[in-house]
Amino acid sequence: MQKLAIIAGPTAVGKSAVAIEVAALLNGEIISADSMQVYRKMNIGTAKLDQKEMIAENGEFIPHHLIDVVFPDEDFSVADFKREVEALIPLIIQKGKLPILVGGTGLYIESVIDPYEFAPMPVNEELRKSLRKEAQLKGPLYLHNRLREVDPISAEKLHPNDLRRVIRALEVYYQSGVPISHHAVSRKKKELLSRYLLSYIGLRCERSYLYERINRRVDKMMGKGLVQEVKGLLDEGYSPDLTSLQGLGYKQIIGYLQGHYDLE
Residues 6 or more apart from 154 whose CB is under 8 A from it? Predict the structure, then answer.
């Protein structure tokens, strides 16, 4: 079995810093399991590390994979991620190194370590736009309640403010008539064990301390120019309705730039 380490945890808990030191100790390379860091041109709001921040305390540079994969107007699904990771892991192992999967996108991690098969489902941009408009007019909780009616399993897993995934779940249901929890990701009929010899580390901290870290991170992002980054993307012609720009932080800054609310 192939060895695979995983470091997971909530936003701002410190996964990246821990992963870099673990990689230095265990001769590893990092595979990002962050659904937003795959997008190019989106650096500040996704908290991407720069080259200097990828250097461990012992001075070793730690390679990172699956960052800056596609442009903001290109699709990148969990099935794409699974395919990329399954190709990367043996290449890293062939170099005599340990692949370390790091991130907070749970479905991305699950897609790699669990025996999932992904049923293809086309993107319906018109339906997405319609659902986003409903969310703007009636609020995200309205869409979340609609999801709960047709797919209570997915609704239980998704926060109402995770509009991007709520819309995707509704999109799958409306196109197929089958909930995404049963259709888009289906387990193989035969019980299978993971192909990997796993070491799974989950990071956590006190909620009050985590909120402090999140607030500091947001302040740092604003200081580094998050508003300018988002404005630049819009000026380049990227639509605010893109899935990539519905991510946390980007959506709110777009609302500010459009005059819907202030930065407070």
Answer: 147, 169, 179, 180, 181
Cα angle 6, 181, 135 (rounded to 5 degrees) comes to 100
Is pTM beyond 0.70? Reply is: yes
Helices (H) and strands (E) in the chain, counts: 10, 7
Half-sphere exposure of 55 (CA within 13 A, CB side): 7
Contact 217, 47 (CB under 8 A): yes
Tell me yes or no: is domain 125-176 CATH 1.10.20.140.
yes
Tokens of 1: 């079995």
Place of tokens 């909530």: 10
CA distance 99 to 1: 13
Helix or strand holding residue 231 (H, E) = helix 226-235
Q: What is the DSSP string of 78-141?
A: HHHHHHHHHHHHHHHHHTT-EEEEEES-HHHHHHHHS-EEE------HHHHHHHHHHHHHH-HH
- The whole-number mean pLDDT for each consecutive block of 10 residues of the chain, a chain of 264 residues, reads 95 96 98 96 96 97 98 91 95 98 88 71 85 91 94 88 88 84 53 76 94 94 97 96 90 92 78
Mapped onto helix, strand or coil, the DSSP state of residue 217 is helix
Specify burial of residue 148 (Cβ count, 10 A radius: 0-12, 13-18, 19+). Answer: middle
Residue range 2-119+187-202 forms a domain whose CATH class is alpha beta
CA distance 69 to 72: 10
CB 80 within 8 A of CB 4: no
Q: Are 141 and 160 in contact (CB under 8 A)?
A: yes
CA distance 173 to 139: 20
Break the chain into its structural domains and give their ranges: 2-119+187-202, 125-176, 216-257
